Amino acid sequence: LASETTKEPLDQEVVELASAILSDFYAGKLRDTAQVSYLDRIRTGTVLARELPFYLVHNHETWNGVIDLVLEEDGVIRAIDYKSTMARDPLPERYRQQQTIYTEALQRALPGRNIDFEFWWLGRAES
Q1: Do 83 and 94 form a contact (C-beta atoms < 8 A)?
Q2: From edge to edge, which strands make up the β-sheet containing 114-121?
Q3: How far apart are CA 110 and CA 97, in angstroms?
Q4: Which of 29, 32, 72, 94 is most open to solvent, judged by the fewest CB atoms within 10 Å of its CB?
Q5: In degrees rounded to 5, what are phi and psi of residue 113?
Q6: What are the contacts of 51-58 at 24+ separation with CB within 8 A?
Q7: How many angstroms separate the CA atoms of 49 and 68, rounded?
Q8: Beta-strand (E) ranges in 1-127?
């Protein structure tokens, strides 16, 4: 059966980039705007979900997606979306829309809870 399956070969650049991102993450080099490593935040917070799917009707539009990480820190529940790029400023409209939709999805799932949203920028500076 394996010989009947056609697979695209892995793009070596993509594999190398993913490896570099993971190495940086586990070395504590990937940090938020307060310079706290994402790894430390995961270690000190409570992971409530990974790859959490949702379906939502918002402003008469139907949305579905997957929240990469739901992390509780100091009573705040955060929807976190990983981006494999460097931080964007200003934030593109599609990212602002994603932030709104993901936040709304968690607010509906967890009414009365303090909900927040963050992008975790995983990109590396060009050398």
Answers
A1: no
A2: 46-58, 61-73, 76-83, 114-121
A3: 20
A4: 94
A5: -90, 155
A6: 54/102, 54/105, 54/109, 56/101, 56/104, 56/105, 56/108, 58/100, 58/101, 58/104
A7: 8
A8: 46-58, 61-73, 76-83, 114-121
Q: What is the share, in percent, of the chain residues with pLDDT greater than 90?
A: 75
Residues 94-111 have pLDDT tens digits of 999 999 999 999 999 999
- The three-class DSSP label of residue 54 is strand
For residue 84, the model assigns a pLDDT of 87
CB atoms under 10 Å from CB of 117, counted, come to 19
Q: The whole model's pTM is what?
A: 0.85
Please tell me whether the peptide bond between 111 and the residue prior to it is cis, using omega within 30 degrees of 0: no
